[in-house]
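Ticket 4471: requesting a sanity check on a complex prediction with UD2. Repro inputs:
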Amino acid sequence: METPPLADRTVLVTGGAGFVGSHLVDALAPHNEVRVLDNLTTGSRSHVHDDARLIEGNVRDPIALQRACDGVDVVFHEAAVVSVTRSVDRPRETNRTNLEASLLLLEQARQEDARVVLASSAAVYGDPTDVPVSETARTEPTSPYGVQKLALDQYARVYASLYGLETVALRYFNVYGPRQQGPYSGVISAFLEQAQAGEPITVEGDGEQTRDFVHVEDVVRANLAAATTDRTGEAYNVGTGSQTSVLELAETVKSAVDTDAPIVHRPPRQGDIRHSRADVSKARSRLEFEARIDLEAGIQDLAERTAAPERPRKATDRGERTTS
Ligand code: UD2
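Returned structure tokens:
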């Protein structure tokens, strides 16, 4: 087993009941004092590790934030409204959570002199002209969500250079894995759900668009590396460096579920990005982070975890790493 890279610290995970946050808490809780700040709108109490303290509250609430940050050494900021569509419908409201709350958090972290690792996004790049996309590529978001993440990402850099705060922004590509649920959960969980229900798999557009799918356990490892690196004040891509088309993905899901469900095409999504793939060289050389979980293995594992109860399961449901 690897040595835990972060131990004996007081740690806050905002959004720690959510998808990425709850996996991060699972990795941290055995070795650290962990607090979770989450308002449980999309997160779930049952996903919070038993050894973590859940503070039910909103990241936009300065009092809740102050309480959660008191005496903290490291903050992982995962709380966000992750729906791009919602940000298009409600730019100001989503800005309050995704940006204003992040700024409040950075201020609070300054008071505590805490390290802050922030969840940024590949959305900062918009529709890249070339892939793989490196951290120095043009940033031209195509949604309010992308603008909000870009501003957060830039504030992190500015707080490092201006105030000496130790910050790291992690630009997540397409994250997938257990506990990704709800209407904005992404194409892998949508396809799995359809395949397992024996329904047609709905490919939007021609299916030749590509993404860099990274498993949530790899994203957790990137966060742990960011918590201890001395290369702070920087943004890093968190992806695998490989790209997979939506059609290939549909086939992989079909074989993981062992179904002959048909693939049907729907109109393309408005404003959809054509190709996205991370240049992972900066994270590799400076964070010593490299994604390990192969997409097929990750999907196979996910298919087994989410299969109907009578199907054989490879692993129990909580926190174990079954693929690497
Ligand atoms: C991802 C992020 C989003 C934001 C964005 C930035 C996820 C879940 N979302 O959006 O938060 O960072 O990147 O660019 O990671 N598709 C189908 N059929 C379906 C569902 C989706 O064909 O039933 C297609 C969809 O049209 C798109 C691709 O699959 O071309 C990926 O869609 P997504 O919603 O999983 O993620 P994306 O890249 O739009």
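Notes from triage: The chain has one domain: 10-309. Leaving this open until the requester confirms.
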